[in-house]
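Quick look at the format.
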Amino acid sequence: MNSIATGLRRTALIPAVFLLLTIILAGWHNNRRPRAIALLPSLTNQPEYCLSCHQDLPEISRSHPFQAFGCVLCHGGERLSLEADLAHRSMRGGRNPSDLTVAQDSCGGSNCHTGEAAQERNHVQRVLTSVQATYAGAIANLRYSFGAQPDLTARMGIFAIRDEHIQTPTGLPGLEAFAPENETNPGIQAFAQNCLNCHLSAEPLPGEETSRLTGCAACHSLTAGDDLDQPLHSLTLKIPYTQCNTCHNRGNYDLRNMHFVPRSDKPQDRLHDYYQPIAQFVRCEWTLDCIDCHTRYEIMGDGDLHSNQREIRYIQCRTCHGTLDELPLTRTITDPEDLALRMSFLNPVIDLGGGDTVLVSSRGEPLWNTRRLADGSYELFGKASGQRFTFRAVKGSACQQNTAEQESRYCHECHAVER
């Protein structure tokens, strides 16, 4: 009888023990949840709780203040969740919302970098059509070299894309997706296996010298060594040449087996350690950063699909220096919405204002880091370094150039720096 009563008492304790464990687990779970920190971004006017865990992240850039943008507008995710797995479940591009597979929704969302009447503000569309994204030039050259196509006009890119609004004489209506499995030539197959690491969608090769992210962040998010597992939360317009080198300093092609011959060292001095030791350079080509000369239309695309980079080369030596017969093209700023003013606000290495005269490219794109001075000379500020340089136009100088020969190789004949 006593044993029966004892069993009944033990049985009665089970629900109580279960309830106690439930309360303990619930309390433990609640203690693990972060303290809720709400943010109400002005652009969405919808509360989000990302800062409950990520309050220590620095603001990504001065043009993307979190009070205005918040986190979800770019990153996606479940804005009201305090559970990490649920909050991150629908994030765009994992840690990188600028990856080209999602950039249209993240960087282009809410008409931020796309959908504008002004072509200069449709960054996402321009980047998707750029040769840096399509890799169309390299693919066309290889397929032509191995007899897979009759000329150098691009027919294929990394992904299929159409352009219904061609604006330039060399613009293409579309590209098919490059499919290496359909290629029969071993050289093209080897190219696809070994040489497709530098378009904007490609994951980089291992190593500090090739460390970068994908998409917009390949250029605008500077990496610290090869630790891509370390979260990076920074976008910048101050892009040094070393960031460009993650793609543009890979070594040399070995055309016998379609491999890159990598460098055995890591370049330190641009002039003496450049990967093409036989090449020639004038002072600006190894003193300035790449972005000090190359414009947004050259780097990020001009909105058209092209067969090669040469077709969108809008900057030459004459852009800044003119010729013996003509001064360089310039524009005096009168519009308060001038692109030059906007860019100098976002990257204030130069204090531009109304009435200032800046150099412009052959397409009319402002070189916003330049200015004509009162004595007729010009100044240029490094977009990454902030360093100031002054220079004069060729016209009226002792230069003996042939005005019909304006490619850099002709300038190198007299102005190349000895190494």
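Next, a different chain entirely:
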Amino acid sequence: MSSQEKTGKSGTDNPSEHADNWADLTEKDLETLDQVSRNLMQASLKSQKLMSDVMAKALEGDPVMPQADPFHSAPEFGEVWTHIMSQPELVMQAQADLMKGYLDLWTNTTKRVVTGAEEAAIKPEPGDKRWRSKDWSENPVFDAIKQSYLLNQNFMMGLVHGVDGIDDRTKRKVEFLTKQMTDALAPTNFALTNPDVLRETMQSKGENLTRGLKNLMADLEKGRGRLALTQTDMDGFKVGEDIATTPGKIVFQNEIIELIQYAPTTETVKKRPLLIAPPWINKFYILDLREKNSMIRWLTKQGFTVFLISWVNPGPELKDKTFEDYMHQGLFAAMDAIEEATGESSVNTVGYCVGGTMLASSLAYLEATGKSERIASATFFAAQTDFELAGDLLLFIDDEWMKEIERLMDSQGGVLDGRTMADTFNLLRSNDLVWSFTINNYLLGRQPQAFDLLFWNADQTRMPKALHLWYLENMYRENRLSKGELTLGNVQLDLSKVKTPIYMQASRDDHIAPYASVYKGAKRFGGPVRFMMAGSGHIAGVINHPDANKYQHWINEDLPETVEQWYSGAEEHPGSWWLNWRDWLYERSGEDVPAREPGDGKLKALRDAPGEYVLVRSDAKREKAKEPAE
């Protein structure tokens, strides 16, 4: 059966099946090609003018552009390739494997065209979403293009991975960047080799490309000459109305935090309050996205009095704020306010990501200063306290990158622009967070859909220079907290002396806080630690409402020497880990007491949640805050 008979459409409807003979083209086909040509010409003319305008604005509004080699990788690439060329057996074997792959591909493709039999010379990795379109498997031409690309990528990656005589960090860095470059060269990312783009180009007569150009220019203009890739409709949600809607009040505020006390949803609550310290590198409402997946709302329904720190989105006026300032004016100030509001001098605490690193430091600080009773328990979400195995982010925290980061912050008034952090994290998952949107926005000419998680991801925050440089130096580069070499205010911090009960969460697929790194940190504490590993990654592994019935988690009450030993003895449980954590918290939360309404204690309500700090956007726009509470 012909491809036309299989689809029930004419061959001209699908560019991958288009007539090869110009004589076979109909008048309609010629009109379509003419319109495509006109649209492409129009796009070309527009691009010249718009690019000139954008670059002029870039020079006026944002003169500091990223350097051509911000990671200072050229010397390391040179070192790796010098070693590769000095190992002829490695090169010869890689070339032989590549040649065999191409021979298999040629043979299999010819056999498929003649007989219809399908056999792949190479297959994509499981879960690689780039090849979801049926054309990549059903059309012999595009299937061959796909396999050819994968063979070349494997060839490049194999050379770097197989070379000897290179230190592990240099090899891992070059491997990571080689993967980034080969991902960028995937045929999915080019109009002429992406079947979905070709089809859309023919059907829209090239209008998708002109729309895509407009989208590209809009993103360049938004970034003042630096590409600010749009991942979602930023007008699709409003903080405090569509997301971050759990009722509560701001009961305390200083220049670094607003403290939210959430309204109870039960008649009685546990006596000991729960204080959550989210990361200051993101907005807190990842914990309160929508009613159906909000951890905050769920916790109130379990009978906890929940307090949460909403960090300021700092401007240049706060450039000198330090990690120690964030501990004292953030976590400790919140604890003092909670005691004033509830009368409780001891709290259960939660630290997420860098908020967890600060919480661990605070535990050691309180232990050293004789005030450990202020924190009854500590829960860590995807938080590292030992950075020896901290993943791909470690590869770039070298002297040259530190100089580049400092240069960028100085050019921005002493704060790290939110775009820089967002670009860094997007790079760790570039196929999902960069190239998929490049195809959708610029090649298909579509607008991204409204998606709450991506809205949060794009709502970036700035960071003070003093805090950020200190954190990179002392945590990532020197690993001083884990080694017991960190001091805050002349107080030596020693995690091994911390006896506070700890619940430590890690995620199996976390690319920011790898579970092996989190486990290594769990071994540093001197008290009881329950280590739990959840399915999925840095966000979905944490935000997994029980009602969703998704993923799984593993629990092992023992802490053997290695995480591999821990996993071999762990028991797998279906669904969310929240219920296990809730029961652990119940044991440390005291008896039931009448529910506490925000503002009923000594601290009066200042305004409604989610407050004002969370509304400050890093693009200098500010949403209107809710009116103060009555």
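The chain has two domains: 11-18+27-62+69-222, 248-395+461-615.

See the schema section for token definitions.
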